[in-house]
Design a protein that fits this description.
Elements lengths: L5 H25 L4 H5 L1 E10 L2 H14 L4 E5 L7 H9 L3 E6 L4 H4 L3 H19 L5 E2 L9 H8 L4 E2 L4 E2 L10 H12 L4 E7 L5 H16 L2 E4 L2
Parallel strand pairs: 1-2, 1-7, 1-8, 2-3, 4-5, 6-7
Helix pairs in contact: 3-9, 8-9
Length: about 230
């Protein structure tokens, strides 16, 4: 190398060392770990009482078109003849959890043994249909006050899932797509983590009709959609 180029080469070498040292410090400090995850708004769409051929199928069509994951809490007695509905839900990336085998209050809550049998029977029906062992559970008729029974179910390895927003389709039999949407928005309020209760059992066509608008609203509000 000619002598006149040596000082220039030394200068560029020093510059590269400087940038490597201080550039790394700058980029590391500028990207705090998990900053997005900590501030992110999330919504979990959860559907109870299915599967039903017409309504669950329509809901799955909407979720597929919108590329939105969801969680279905199934009733075991509704699975025979609709295995392909649950198989489709799993194949398309949705979660399936236990709701109950019979959804008959007096039978489910007759005793602790009755409750645990109901859970086990429904789980077996889901696993037989989908090949996936469920790990999620939701109490039929709500379970906010069932702390002791919740502990029994969690001891079986389940995560018990409640909700903090609803659309009113499980209470008002004459709920319309408009009222379902409005109730979902109102009960979600200003929450940053929303677990929305909906229903996909027979007779809930209005829920499927309201779903595209519900998804559009929460997406516009900056929510990320998750399956449990």
């Amino acid at each position: 190398m000619q002598k006149k180029f040596i000082p220039l080469a030394v200068f560029f070498a020093a510059l590269l060392v400087f940038l490597a040292h201080f550039g790394t410090r700058y980029t590391t400090a500028a990207r705090p770990a998990f900053a997005f995850a900590e501030s992110e708004k999330e919504i979990f769409l959860t559907f109870d009482d299915g599967p039903s051929t017409k309504v669950t199928g329509a809901i799955l069509d909407v979720l597929k078109e919108e590329r939105t994951p969801a969680t279905f809490f199934a009733v075991g007695e509704h699975i025979p003849g609709r295995r392909e509905i649950l198989q489709r839900a799993v194949a398309e990336g949705h979660s399936v959890g236990v709701h109950s085998m019979t959804h008959v209050y007096k039978e489910i809550y007759a005793s602790d043994a009755s409750l645990l049998k109901d859970v086990a029977d429904c789980a077996a029906a889901i696993e037989e249909a989908t090949g996936v062992k469920p790990t999620l559970y939701r109490f039929p008729y709500g379970g906010e006050r069932r702390k002791r029974q919740r502990a029994l179910i969690e001891a079986q390895g389940y995560t018990v899932v409640g909700w903090n927003a609803e659309c009113g389709d499980g209470i008002a039999k004459d709920a319309t797509a408009e009222s379902i949407f409005e109730t979902a928005v109102r009960t979600a309020g200003k929450k940053r983590r929303v677990v929305l209760l909906l229903h996909d059992g027979a007779g809930h066509e209005a829920t499927a009709e309201a779903l595209p608008r519900i998804i559009a609203h929460f997406r516009e509000e900056g929510f990320a959609f998750r399956a449990l």
